[in-house]
Amino acid sequence: MSRSRSWTSRARRSMPVSLRRGRVTAVVEQHLGLVRLEVDGTPCVAYPDVTGPVEVGDEVLVNVQARELALGSGGFDVLHANLTRGLDLPAAEGAHVMKLPYTSLQFAAPHGEEGGALAVELDGMPVLCCSLHSQLAPACAGLGEGLEVAYVQLPGGALPLPLSDTVRVLRERGLLTTTVSAGACFGGEVECVGVESALAWAAGSGYQAVVCAIGPGIVGTGSRLGHGGLAAAEAVNSGAALGGSPVLAARISSADERERHRGVSHHTEAVLRLCAEGVVVAWPQGLEAPEWVEPRREVGVDGWQEACAGLPLSHMGRGPDEEPWFFAAAYAAGRLARTLVR
Known about the structure:
Elements: E1 19-31, E2 34-39, E3 42-46, H1 48-51, E4 59-63, H2 65-68, E5 77-82, E6 97-99, E7 107-109, H3 112-115, E8 126-129, H4 136-143, E9 149-154, H5 165-172, E10 178-182, E11 190-192, H6 195-204, E12 209-214, H7 231-241, E13 245-249, E14 252-253, E15 263-264, H8 266-274, E16 280-284, E17 296-299, H9 304-307, H10 324-339
Parallel strand pairs: 3-5, 8-12, 8-13, 9-10, 9-12, 10-11, 13-16, 16-17
Antiparallel strand pairs: 1-2, 1-4, 2-3, 4-5, 6-7, 14-15
């Protein structure tokens, strides 16, 4: 029995967007690029740079699907359109490169590649690569203060950079100097078409180190290759190809109930398998490493709790007391990257 590869011969699954009309009943928090609000009493987030300003009483359309499916990313709705004050909004002045192209939310944004000088080579600049957003805070604590550090958010988790409370805290603490949203991500201080040009922009703009991670949450299927953490492999390979010094933060857990994530996660194994030469895995000293975690470099992590004090440390709802090696491993990656700064 032959199987045709033509799309016309196969039944296609519908993938509808679940929208609901409602009215804004409360504005709870306002941050740069993010508003937390309530629509008919239900928590919701809005991205005013995309959908326009929002006020109590506005009639809105909200996407309710993730919350109704009780997904990990579904604790709130997302404002899709503001029918009261979000229509006929002009494009950003001088912008013509589209974010989220060919979707109903496509919008033009200025991009760093258009006006900035892109470095041809990274000249050994450390590129610290995380497969989870929850690694970002301890990794930046490991890098420490006094450096010009750019954060590059990669697709694989939440796309809107302003959703991250962690990034706001790191900016306030001076552990990050600027933010870049690459690819389908949006809302950073700088937009870039991809991770390659984001790294070149950072090097050309004089930053001393780059930290790459996906946004909060992670796209996952339970499989070795079907997850958003593989964005770290692209960052590693791009960093190495451009002459940088990639460092990979290992995902380690002693408390995860899922066997595939106990010890060193299969996510880290998959990332390593996809990495070309040039990457080094930072390994926290004092913990035995599996033989397959190569190439690795042991890094002392004494004092990591003190260095991370006051930072948002949470992984799958677990904190540093429950998952000490998870956070220590990310901290080790930051410490190693610090030694590579020229």
